[in-house]
Amino acid sequence: MRRVDPLTLHELRRRVLRFGDPTMSVADPRDEEPTSLHFAGFLSDRLVVSASFYPSLSPVNPELRTYQLRYMATDLDVQGRGYGSRVLEQSERELRQLGVEQLWANGRDTALGFYVHTGWSTLKGSEHLSPETQLAHTVIFKGLR
């Protein structure tokens, strides 16, 4: 697990999160900002998991120093083997050291079990369809204090 340049993550983001569709965006306008953090996990030299974090106003506790998780992706053939948990553990440790108090994300409903298992909570009443993918999502959050 290590920090990487966001461009390193685009292929995995597209394959896992955008159905492999080359016309769908896998970039966030904040990708290159110096406060954004991008983490990746490798199996040998193969990228298998990614997570990007951006400073953001929390929809849960706006008074807290918060980062948004986006583009959490684990390659399809290695899902369920702990790589997602490990990239979150590493990134949460580094974000906590930077003084971040809370994380939030628009979690895919199909992945909510994973997030709850790793200590995240769902925000009741926040269910929605992603404008990018038209998939069901729910706002999730996790305190880092």
Description of the molecule:
The chain has 145 residues and is an alpha+beta fold. The chain has a single domain, classed as 3-Layer(aba) Sandwich (Aminopeptidase). It contains three helices and eight strands, in the order βαβββαβαβββ. Strands 1, 2, 3, 4, 5, 6, 7 and 8 form an eight-stranded mixed sheet that branches. The model has no long low-confidence stretch (mean pLDDT 94).
Please write out the topology.
Layout: E1 2-3, H1 10-17, E2 37-43, E3 46-55, E4 66-74, H2 83-97, E5 102-108, H3 112-117, E6 121-122, E7 128-129, E8 136-143
Parallel strand pairs: 4-5
Antiparallel strand pairs: 1-2, 2-3, 3-4, 5-8, 6-8, 7-8
Summarize the structure.
This protein has 145 residues and is an alpha+beta fold.
Under CATH at level 1, the class stands as Alpha Beta
Q: Low-confidence parts lasting 5 or more residues at pLDDT below 50? A: none
Question: For the record, what is the CATH homologous superfamily label?
Answer: Gcn5-related N-acetyltransferase (GNAT)
How many strands, which pairing sense, and closed or not: the largest β-sheet?
Answer: 8 strands, mixed
Q: Report the radius of gyration as a whole number of Å.
A: 14 Å
Level-2 CATH architecture: 3-Layer(aba) Sandwich
- Estimate the global geometry from the Cα principal axes: globular
Instruction: Kindly report the CATH topology.
Output: Aminopeptidase
* Strand segment count: 8
The CA-CA distance between the termini, in Å, is 22 Å
Task: Give the H and E element order.
Answer: EHEEEHEHEEE
Total of domains = 1
Total DSSP helices: 3
Structural class: alpha+beta
Mean pLDDT: 94
Strand content: 25-35%
Helix content: 10-25%
